[in-house]
Amino acid sequence: MNSKLKSAIALALLGVSSLSYAQTDVSLIIKNGQVLTMNSQKEVYDNGVVIINEDAIVAVGDESLLKTYTSKNIIDAENGIVMPGMINTHNHLPMIAFRGLGEEGIENRLFAYFFPLEAKKLNRNVIYQATRLGTLDLAQSGVTTYADMYYHVDEMAKATKEIGLRAVLGETVIKFPVVDAKDPFGGIEYAKPFIEQYKNDPLITPALAPHAVYTVSEAKFKEIDLLSAKYDIPVLVHVSEFGNESERIEGNTDKLSPIEWLDSIGVLNDRMVLAHTIHIDDEDIALVKKSGAGIAYNPMANAKGATGIAPAWDMYKLDIPMGLGTDGPMSSNQVDLWRTLSYAANMQRLKHNDRTIMIPEQVIELATIGGARALHMDDEIGSLEANKKADVIIVETQSANMRPSYDPYATLVYQANPSNVVTTIVNGDLVMQDRVMKNVDTDDIHQAIDKIESDIAAFAKELAKEAIKSPSLMK
């Protein structure tokens, strides 16, 4: 073999060798963390790596991935827990403007206090500014997606996108005039341009939110269902939060349960997300299972409101799509899920007198992929898997409250708090890194809330004096 041929072969082999070690450049790499994938096998990588390019996860695995991928942006998780962003499946986020009010022991809190307070003090600016505060609170605590039922959802969408979170925003439909609709059930018309504007948005999923079976008529439920089917959007609704809802349904002469009534009028389906579902029986659960509807389990709010304990364990065993919610900031006073995690487990253990059920791994499932299933979004979010959206959080494990950490699921459910979340990523974008918000001026948000608080305080105090005289509708 002549020397020229030898040289050509050597160069060719060198080229093949170089190609075999070429690295793929990506937008972000997270390394050196305990990665909880929450995939179907619940895989955990103790020295794990998450590879992100633009808005999607490319790969999840062990440190060998660092041989294949490179990035200018590498986050060292410093042995913290890397997990999917949490999903709050039920909220009324702008009510954070009223958080802490109405705690004087008012029995008829919803109708004698909540609704009059909203009627007097809500407006576009309050909803926008309160949503900014609420989404700031969510981002700082590791919630990357939330589902909400409220008013002026266009203002909520604007504020949510400023922070950088993902949201399912349901325009409330109810039988009396409200802040964004002068006519009863006016939320339907208000929702239509909102749906058109956001139907293809990368972060905002528009939805319809009939308030409850006792505040929305059969005809309006059917109209909402048709609109939901036309646009393939979710329907968010309160169901069986109170024990006397059957008697309050207009025209319910057969005394059907709320679940049975929704099924009987043909609107119980897999586009629905049912919040609370406390006062339901086995027949109701079977109908929910058959329909494919999702469940938003709100244990902390239900305990605080003394409305009861939902049969969440029974539904979990039947593999009904179910996630965790906080309800509004006047119901649990929280929008993050950390305290709700322990409530989710402990209320079921108390209900069933069984400390072996709803173990921490199952609770974290509800807070992540379970919430995604409940919102019918599990093909995009809820777990760390290739081709899913890059919604990721990092929870540090070096603070005193996090030590020791033998079982990451138990650490998260029973030890962690919002301040342990150090990094929040949504759709591949850094929303918070090392506890520093990336997209907003937090001082500006707090100053706006100071003004709102000053305006509301005196009126709220006087309203409470009247509201406390109103008997509970449960009586």
TrEMBL record:
CDD domains: ATZ_TRZ_like
Amidohydrolase-related domain sequence ranges: 81-431
Pfam families: Amidohydro_1
Leader sequence residues: 1-22
Family classification: Belongs to the metallo-dependent hydrolases superfamily. ATZ/TRZ family.
SUPFAM superfamilies the UniProt entry points to: Composite domain of metallo-dependent hydrolases, Metallo-dependent hydrolases
A Gene Ontology molecular function term of the record: hydrolase activity, acting on carbon-nitrogen (but not peptide) bonds
Keyword flag Signal: yes
InterPro entries for the chain: Amidohydro-rel, Metal-dep_hydrolase_composite, Metal_Hydrolase, MTA/SAH_deaminase
Protein name: Amidohydrolase
UniProt xrefs under PANTHER family: AMIDOHYDROLASE-RELATED DOMAIN-CONTAINING PROTEIN, AMINOHYDROLASE SSNA-RELATED
Keywords: Hydrolase, Signal
